[in-house]
Amino acid sequence: MNYDSIMQVLGVCVVACPAALLAVFGVMSLIGRPLGERMMARFTQVSVVAGLLAALAILAMMLVLDTRHVPVEIGNWVVIPAQHFHFHLKFVFDRLSVPFAILSFVLCGTVGAFTSRYLHREPGYGRFFVFYAVFLLGMILSSLAGTIETLFLGWELVGLSSALLVAFFHDRPNPVRNGQRVWTVYRFADAAFLIAALTLHHLTGEGDFEGLMGRGPWPEGVASITGSRALFVGLLLLVAAAGKSALVPFSGWLPRAMEGPTPSSAVFYGSLSVHLGAFLLLRVSPVLEVSPLLSAAVVAIGLISALFGAVTARVQTDIKSALAFASLTQVGIIVAEIGCGLRYIALIHIIGHACLRTLQLLRAPTLLHDYGTLENAIGTQLSRAPTFWERVVPEQGRVWLYRFSMERGFLDAVLNEYIVRPFLALFRYSDRLERRWTDMLSGGQSRESDEVKPHTAALEEFV
Amino acid sequence: MQSTALEHPKGETQTDDSARREKLRQAIAHATHLLPSQGPITVFVHHNTLHAFEDRPFDAGVKAGGRRFGCHPYLPEEHYREQLAHGRIRVQDLEAVLLESLGEGADCLVGSFGTRYALRLAMLQFPLRSGPTAELRWVIAETDALRSFREEVEPSVREQLIDETRRWVRRDLRNGNPVREFADSDVLAEMLDRFDRRTIESWSPKTWEAFILNFLWKLCYNGVRLADQLAPAAQPVEHRSKRHRDLLLDATGEDADLAVDELLIRFCSAFLDQGFADWQLPDRDLGFYRAFLNSYSQPYCSPTRWYADIHGEVRRLTDSQIGPLESIDESLRLLGIGEDEQSEFILQSLLALRGWAGMIWQLETNAEWMPRPAPAGTLVEYLAVRLILDRVAAAQVARESMDFDGPLDQLRDTAAGEVADDQLNSVDQRAFVIFQLAQVRGWKPEHLLAFSPEQWTTLVHEVETFPSLERRRIYHHSYERKYRNDTLDAVITHSQRTRAASAESSVDGQSFRPLFQIVCCIDDREESFRRHLEEVEPACETLSVAGFFGVAMYFQGVTEAYFKPLCPVVIKPQHYVREQPLYSLMTSSQLQALTRRRIGHALRFAQLGSRTLVGGMLTGLLGAFAAFPLVARILFPRTTSRIRNFFGHIVTPRSSELHLQRTEPEPGPQEGHVGYTIDEMANVVEGTLRLMGLTKNFSPLVLFCGHGSSSVNNPHESAYNCGACSGSRGGPNARAFAQMANNSSVRRILAERGLPIPEDVFFASAYHNTCNDEITWYDVDRIPVTHRKLMEHARQSIDAARERNAHERCRRFESAPFHLTAEEALRHVEGRAEDLSQARPEYNHATNALCFVGRRAWSRGLFLDRRAFLASYDPAQDDERASILERLLQAAMPVCAGISLEYYHSTVDTEGYGCGSKLPHNITSLIGVMSGAASDLRPGLSAQMVEIHEPVRLLFVIETTPDLMRRIIDDNQGIAQLVNGNWVQLAVLDGATSQVHRYIDGQFVPYEPETTQLPLVTSSLDWYRGWRDHLGFASIQDNRP
């Protein structure tokens, strides 16, 4: 057995571990034999540790053998010769994907261990771990993806599990509402991604990143498309990344996502899934280089988001929103770094920020305890001298800025009013047309469901 | 809005205005009673959630509270039925409670259906399923509800029913249908047709069963319909006094509160913020109303219709200089609220976000110690803002969903017109209940067919007067009765046993000098600790008194920034006590303090910096190092905390002392004014010792042990601390008490007052952490050489006891396997306290159900499963008015009842009264928690805290006579309200005869024990091992010499 085949086996292992985890959890719940808490925690542990070890082994071999690009192919799954389409499952181990996969394993593993105790006796324990397995698989697929279809697959899994976990406490209306909101924004981003992927196919005939970005190992590839095409594809990908990473103007969903159990908020919106947009941009960074306009757009969106996050974080009064906007600030900076071509710095920044934010979010409920400790250490109340901004900005401006930040830049309100509302109005109008049509055809009321009022359960005792 | 409506009606005078506003003010003041009275979460004080309803009896109170807040008054019926199936409620309990509640009416005959008692018992014993009409129709059509009898129906009843009906139908058929007076005789014919009467001879038993059930169902259905025609039509639902939002929600399904709440939650948390956010709300000093007006009248801040409407309204109010109260008045007029419904409407508006409104009220009236209390009048201003927003939102929803553009005061009538009347109980629903009853009671179709409409009316009425709510009440009382009787039986039997044992033994209990004595808090969590200590060292004696030990003080620890009160909330301390490093360590301690401050500043800088632009970038780039503490703290919590503690010890002074003696006459926080005078100390010591009856027979070593709890990632940490110390840790109180009692001048005064403490008695002090079962000893260097050996022995016994205590606690934790040894159990609980991912560091007061007041003699060795508050009291040392007991109960009864009732309410409705699941909690403004990203503030206890709790009212068993107890009840308003209103249960015990009297409806009634059986086991471990659930009582063998 030569080194190459060892790498292949290890590479398959890295992907197979989370896939196996999802298969076990999913199948067991589907056949109506859900696993117990201990079993689920054990399976998670084994799968994460095995995946992590395999990834570390690959890293070690890559360092020792000085290879920088290890493709692992798992065959063509769909081939439509007439359309020149083939769905090619291919993973790439390089300087970008290996650190990101290791980061995912470490953070997911830690949060898995955390959650197995935190959610002890919670009725949704099994559900959480199924979503968790979906998420882990999604993260690994997207970080290792070698083709844009594979990346899209992982991207979708991450989005699905994120939205479902926001709505984890589905017996209260707010989490469900916010979960739907996250889902809607994700769909928007997904649509952009999908169009970009199709365009890419159209342009290069295949979905391989290699075809798009040349054969050089990341980050040294040179894109093989022209500037204007790169701008079009790149802008679409930028929209996708902005949706996923909650960049302006999609930032409104990030604090709303803090509805699930604390550990899910930590790993999803604090660290991993919020960086996925930045990761996508990193992956296609050679494309950015081709078009200065595109790079400028990326830098602009990044800086605007960072500024927006930094200002807004200052007025947040609850710990989770404050951390959400603090995350946004850093993600914005990371995106700007990518736009400037600082790829290694961006990667280091992602890893550092993800670790730090996870720790901070997991510790969020201990805020009062920490405040007490700090107050005792410092010996006085933690009051604050007026900050630089407060001294510089005139009174009227401060009031305005405060209001702007408190309303979170009106981003949600504006999206609701000028995107959602016309959209809904259009569909309601179509619905009315359809009803008129069907009523006419059936010669009367055509929809029985109109008459049934939703049943609002009255409290048992007052019946 | 409509500008014409704004102008005051002509001719209205100034006085009218001010009178009306005074009325408004009163209505708001009145409404505040119903707001949650929990203050900032850093000082969590347990109290009855339904305190405002305590002037009514318990059952009426919980129902009224439930109706007001939309919460459950008892557990769900389903839950009680499970308890019935598991024997936690016995049928005999149901029978007894039902008989008691029906009184004279029990034997009342209901038509020919048997007695009311039998009918109701059947309804309690067998689950009567119900549901929405659509669901019931589905059940009837799609399940075998009409094919086979319910499984609870006894086989004999079923056989008989089938047999007799078969005979009757065939006879009827053969004889032709006799014309019956009332029934529509077609029913039988129709049924027979449906089941193919030609083959009736060959019907199988299954067919007969289905036939009978179908027949019964049809009869019940028709019967209920008949009854309905006689009964008066149901009252139309009253739409007045409802908020516009409620009617709009019913009519359109759109919730106007969504937008209002989102905005208000944000604004309230900014206004109440105690220093979390970097930027303070501008113009906070001007008050809630002005700050709101200023903020929302900013230009270029209204990108949508909603904001533009608010902006317009706010501008108008600002320009015409309308104050908050005027604005409320105006809003009410615009909304069309009449004078008569005004206070109800105000109340409902305040309750819409009751957590925030309650917190505003608390910060306005009851939190002068917070960094930023709310100015007086904030609640009024909040209401003004709420009503402005309510108006804008209601108008918007009405416009968009109902095309309603008229004045708001007509909105409710319009919306009410669109609300679909849903009838509460449809014919199907009521018929289905009777159908089920017919099966379990074995009513024959033959008889039902012959019923007159009047008879049907009686039956329907009878069933309806015993609705779910009333059934749950009966269940609940039965649930309590089982545990109460078990307790009283155990107390009677156990006290007889111990009396017999001490009579046999040669040693007289009075003159026997214990090896050492330990005084704990009355807290239920100390029960097992004391029991184990008594098992480890049978020669010791344990006592208990409220855990501030009579030392009501403001205390500042050596590493702490402020004084904080260490005494029950009802007391305002006069004295200040400070902990300081030993004199010889002063210099090094200053250095340590400086280091602590520097580290503190650095941490703070890093913490805040990570949330800013530039600082965040730096910390982000270096953030990978956070992976180490992250992984370590989560995977190895106990080890990590040990390492942290090691470093923590470097910067805290090694030993310290209390600054306890005062030199200046006036007490105060300044130098020289800190502490107590000798006379005051003597008063404290005397009061506490007499309260628990420790006035003679001192052992050479008396230990005072305060308690508290430490946990991480737990916003409710304060709730786990000592309730008698305002939710703080009670160690310093024990330490101060011991120091006072050791003072020779104090002892001299005590001796003069007839309370001599022998020379050889030494008082020591310690602190018990109930979460990790750690004991911290104070002032060990001061222990005289003569006592060190004894002290060493006591320490060993206590170490063994805390290990065993940890082991007993672990039986409740599912994550602690049964095979743990005591030592491993201790490590397990130590790990829990430091584990960031642990949502249940300990179970706090969960399962509390009892409070024993009396000598330890009769409860010592009784396994109480950590469910009892224990207060030491010796009736022999009390005067003929029982004034010591009175003093004890004045403090203990409200506190214990408060804890018990808070647990009760948070358990029966964890979402409504409690704060829901802990998992999505989000700390806001440093004052409370929200669920998820934004919600109402959540007072109360979390699901994880109450999950093992049995909601029962606290049962007091007090060692005294009925007459003395009655005297105390008569003289004390507070106690009378709790006891007479049945918010607690009360029984008195005669220590000499073990006779128990229960307090029922103002009378002391002798209690007859059900059984004298009580298991006798060799140790607590023997009894609890291998069992997770609640455990019954047992006597533990007494190993005293």
What topology emerges from the helices and strands here?
The complex is a heterodimer of chains A (463) and B (1041).
Chain A: H1 3-30, H2 37-65, E1 69-80, E2 85-94, H3 97-118, H4 125-144, H5 148-166, H6 173-204, H7 209-213, H8 227-244, H9 253-256, H10 262-271, H11 276-283, H12 285-290, H13 292-313, H14 319-339, H15 343-362, H16 367-378, H17 388-392, H18 395-406, H19 411-442
Antiparallel strand pairs in A: 1-2
Helix pairs in contact in A: 1-2, 1-4, 2-3, 3-4, 3-10, 3-15, 4-5, 5-6, 6-8, 8-11, 8-13, 10-15, 13-14, 13-18, 14-15
Chain B: H1 14-32, H2 58-69, H3 77-85, H4 91-102, H5 116-125, H6 133-142, H7 155-175, H8 186-194, H9 205-230, H10 244-252, H11 257-272, H12 288-296, H13 305-319, H14 324-335, H15 342-351, H16 354-365, H17 378-402, H18 411-418, H19 427-441, H20 445-449, H21 453-464, H22 468-504, E1 516-520, H23 525-536, E2 541-544, E3 553-556, E4 564-566, E5 575-581, H24 586-609, H25 613-622, H26 627-635, H27 637-650, E6 656-659, H28 678-691, E7 701-708, H29 731-742, H30 744-752, E8 762-769, E9 774-778, H31 788-810, H32 822-834, E10 850-854, E11 868-872, H33 883-908, E12 921-924, E13 928-931, H34 943-946, E14 955-959, H35 962-971, H36 973-980, E15 985-989, E16 996-1000, E17 1003-1006, E18 1016-1017, H37 1020-1024, E19 1035-1036
Parallel strand pairs in B: 1-2, 1-7, 3-5, 7-8, 10-11, 10-14, 14-15, 18-19
Antiparallel strand pairs in B: 3-4, 5-6, 8-9, 12-13, 15-16, 16-17
Helix pairs in contact in B: 1-14, 1-15, 3-22, 4-5, 4-22, 7-9, 8-9, 9-19, 9-21, 10-17, 10-18, 11-17, 13-17, 14-17, 23-31, 26-27, 27-32, 28-30, 31-32, 35-36
